[in-house]
Design goal:
heterodimer; A: 152 residues; alpha/beta; 5 strands; 16% strand; disordered C terminus; B: 884 residues; alpha+beta; 7-stranded antiparallel β-sheet
Chain lengths: 152, 884
Amino acid sequence: MNRSYSSVSYNILHVEDNPGDVYITSRAFQKATVPTELTNISDGEEAKQYLSDCASNVSDKPDLILLDINLPTINGDELLEWIMQQEPLQDIPVVVLSGSNASRDIEKMKSYGAKTYLTKPSDIDGLKKVVVTVENFLRPPPGGPQSAASAC
Amino acid sequence: MNTEQENSLNHEIQLALDNCAREPIHIPGSIQSHGFLLVVDNDFKILKASENFLAVCGLELDQLIGTALSRFIQPESIAALEKLVVKSALNALRYCTLTVESTNGPISCDAVLHQSGEVMIVEIEPHQDLDRKLENQDFYQELMQFSVQLHKIESHSDLFGYVVQEVRRLTGFNRVMLYQFDNEWNGQVVAEDKRNTNHSYLGLNFPASDIPEQARKLYSVNYLRLISDINSAPVPILPDDRDTNGDPINLSFSCLRSVSKVHLQYLDNMNVKGSMSISVMQNDRLWGLIACHHDSPYRPAYTVRMAAELIAHTFSAFLSNFMQLQASSDEKVRELKFKELSYALTPDTPLADSINAHHELIMELLDADGIIVKLGTNFIRFGLVPDDPELTQLTNWIEHHTNDQIFVCDSIAESTGLDVSARKVGGAILAPVTHPIENCVMFFRREVNFERHWAGRPEKHISRTDAGFELTPRASFERWKEVVSGHSRTWSEADREMATAISKSLLAKYYEDSLRQATNNMDTVVNNSNALIYIVNTEGIFLQMNDTALEAFGLEIGDVIGNSYHSVLDNALLDVIDKHMTTVLSDNKSSTFTDSFKHKNSDFHLVTVTFPLFDSARQIHSICSMSQDVSELQAIQAELKTSNAELERVAFVASHDLQEPIRLISTFTNLLKLDYADKLDEQAEEYINFTLNAANRMRVLIHDLLEYSRLEYTSLNPPVINAQTVLDELIDELKMTNKLGDARITCDDPLPTIFMKPEHFTCIMQNLISNAIKYKKDSIPVDIRIKTTDDRNYWRFSVTDNGIGVKQEHLKKIFDIFQRLHTNNQYEGTGIGLSLCTKIAKLHGGDAWAESTFGQGSTFHFTILKDIDSLNKIPVCVKDDSVV
């Protein structure tokens, strides 16, 4: 899939059930340096279904998954484990954005293949940091979206 | 009479009385006139002579002294006298007959000889003018007759009567009396044989002063005493000792010794002109006298007197025997009765009941009129006893005045001065006397008022003479009646012994009962205890097992007691008990065991204390085990643990889930502040700041709470870390985030390598360091010193600061969760930090505490186990990984 920065924005799947978080996160990404489009799914099972469709090319794969842990039906850790088992989905970077700062959670999600683990921030600076971190994972290899981004 | 005169008079009267008691009657220096006395040396050379011998020999005194006795008596008489000298029996009187060659021709005489010091005393009594004679064959006849008849006597009074009658028949005195002394040496006439015309003295009492002590002493060594004529002038022994400055001649053993004037006067007042007394001895004590009186001068021959003395000796021996027989027959009766009492004191009957049933027997045993058995504050009373106030006074008196084991008196009133007249109690025995009197038996006899008849008023008369005061014996021996009150019948030696025996056996029974009761009580306690209790001797034989243990182990008492536990028990139970026994036997001290095992399809969880029981020689006698079934306790404990874990889980989940909303409150309030800054007035901005502060504080609170409850859900598995490295990293981070300020942190020594998760160590250290910084003194920079101590099985970390310190009363409190000493305005904090430290320390087998001097600084300590094995043994609560 060839993407041009000017015409195409990055597609981020945000799996999050708390509407407040959904609102704040999408607001934060509106101010991102790269264009992003957040698709929110608030249920683990639904997310799984959505990603299954992606895997079978029914719909487009997201460029990054922003994943909460505490979710209805299927928890984030279970979902992550499943994602990493789906070959077509394996290369999608998964960033965990969770309320928990328990080391146990952090270790577990990292071991399941999360690119990084972010604790949900409670202030504006924290939010900015989340966006920056996510942006870093969005930058394509040299010659890809990164240069386009830097051209912004 | 003025006082001075009266005093002087009293003094002289006293002197007269003393003089009587002190008169040296054994050395009067004179003899009675019916015989001669010669003092000779070993060669029978005359040294002294009674004055009346001068007329017999027709010599002057100076001619006589130094002359051989053989000059005056025939050679065969000298030979007879020499026979009397037996060196081995110096003091014994020896008798013979001899003939004295007087100027008026030969005089046939009786003679006795005895040694007195270096010299011999020869006393000679002429046969002429004798009132009663006894030929040799008659002498034996008389004694034989007396002895034969004696054996037919059956009673005391018959015996006494027989003796006086026989002595009178033999000697021919007008009156013969048997005179018996009491304990105070008063005498009573207990038998009398007399001429009809004489009035009777039978039953009359004579005061002790009538026969003073020195007279009684002479009676005890010289058994017979004759005063043939009270009016005959005493004959001096010449030369007079006072002239020659020699020792006065001792006439203690003399038959002719002259008599005290006072005594002669006494006899004269009684109208006695001739008298004879013979001592009656019992057990080396003067029991009494056979007193013979005659209305005119009277002189029985020496042989007659000898026969009378032999009768007295025989009587004396017979009386001993008689009294012993009597006593032993009394004793036998008593013994039988006492046995009856002993049999009555059976273990099955309480002592009070036994006394109740047999009080008559007890009183009979002592011929008592009342008894009290005092057992502590309990008094068992029967018969005639003092009333309560009297009794209290009596026991008090005895407690303070009696050192003997037993108190005996015939008159409480007279002995103690107490008034016990209310109940007419006379005498008492109390045994045993203890200090204070706790348990004892008391016996009482009623007061017996009786009349005592004296031979005249029992007092000596003092009469005034030209030479001063002189003692004169009373002139009248008319019957004088005295009423004696407050006395009981006298307690005898046998009574005393019996009282002791009864008291001993009653109290022994009481102590046995008490002991049995105590043992029974203990047995009941043991059997009702829910502990499993048993005692095994050192051989492993069961001595005791309580019902609880029997039931729990499913055993029968009959199969257990007397058998070895090896044969009674099996499998697991045997192993457990064997372990207990062998441990205690080898350690010689108490041990506690916790055992879980299966026995007869039941699960046992026992905590057992096993301890040795020692005998009086401090040797292990047996071993006692007391087990408590802790199954239920363990179940409750497990339940508690579960519910505790559940509670903690709720706290964890709650705090975890609370994080989300508070975060969103913060975030949106922030957004509000940011996005609408230009649309909000000052007041709105202030509200928003308040909201933000509150939300922030809540977030910290929830964070700390979560940390705290999360501790329960982490498995320990502590890795080995270098504490110094972890601390350094922490300090770096604090510096980086500007949390240290001007604080200086120093370590005394490098921190050791420990077993602990780094975040745990960091958590504690961070809390302690930030506390030190938070509670600093404004005036000086913060100085924190960290020290490690090797404390046996533990590492102890101490963090000392120079801050505001904590008051002594708050030192413990600050470790309680949510406990804060300051308002949030003063010092921010959640009050969880120190409890978190304690919890972590406890998770590592240690503890946390603080010392502080208020105003000067504090030191916070925490300890953790050093050893990984010990750490792994710490029981961990429910670990539920699924929560996080």
